[in-house]
């Protein structure tokens, strides 16, 4: 078992400890390990999330990390951005970026399982590489449903599980070779990024997340694959009035 991963009451503290360690090089390492592709997938996530939405739509970027998706939404869609994460060093990077870019985004420390917002507060919710790290994804989706306005949309980007067995085998081989090397090179600890393939073992992937979204009350649920299904973009909407 990876030292940053557990499925008991230590899940959140361990994940927080890992991201505290990763925060200051997080964006650089994402560029290295995805060959820059994560930036394309995040832009596609924003495009899907805001399709048909007016400028000024209210966005909650949940598990916002260093703020990539929120800044993109503000810049390209005129969104009013609230980012929430439970790791203060990640938020410190996001706030520094906000200051440097003179962004109007707001960043708050909080728990995805108990969101500090009233019902129907947001028109759009995005989650980039975060749902997999939450102790109870179903409960988190219920909270998203609660704070999403009628007709609002949630879009979740995360590592996927390919249907093709050859693609799945190559993907796992890549993760188990590349991730410990990246962790060792940038953080002196191979387990920091070896966490990714370990966390995927119980993560339901794009098809399972679609089922969880339906169970949480979302409608028009669908998912899109990227890179042979190694990445998944899940989409759902709150029922309209």
Task: Explain what the structure shows.
The chain has a single domain (11-237), classed as 3-Layer(aba) Sandwich (Rossmann fold), CATH 3.40.50. 47% of the residues lie in helices and 20% in strands. It has 9 helices and 7 strands; from the N terminus they run H-H-H-E-H-E-H-E-E-H-E-H-H-H-E-E. It has helices at 11-22, 26-34, 37-50, 68-77, 88-101, 137-147, 165-187, 191-200, 205-215; strands at residues 58-62, 80-85, 106-109, 122-128, 148-159, 219-226, 231-237. The chain has a 7-stranded mixed beta sheet with strand order 3-2-1-4-5-7-6, sandwiched between helices. The longest helix is centred in the last third of the chain and has 23 residues, at 165-187. It is globular, with a radius of gyration of 17 Å. The N and C termini lie far apart (46 Å). The mean pLDDT is 96.
User: What would CATH call the architecture?
Assistant: 3-Layer(aba) Sandwich
| Major sheet attributes | 7 strands, mixed
Return the domain count. 1
Rg for CA atoms? 17 Å
Number of helices: 9
| Helix-strand topology string | HHHEHEHEEHEHHHEE
**Would you give the CATH topology?**
Rossmann fold
Strand coverage percent: 15-25%
CATH-defined superfamily? Vaccinia Virus protein VP39
Average per-residue pLDDT, rounded, comes to 96
Terminal Cα span = 46 Å
Helix content: 40-55%
Shape: globular
Identify low-pLDDT runs.
none
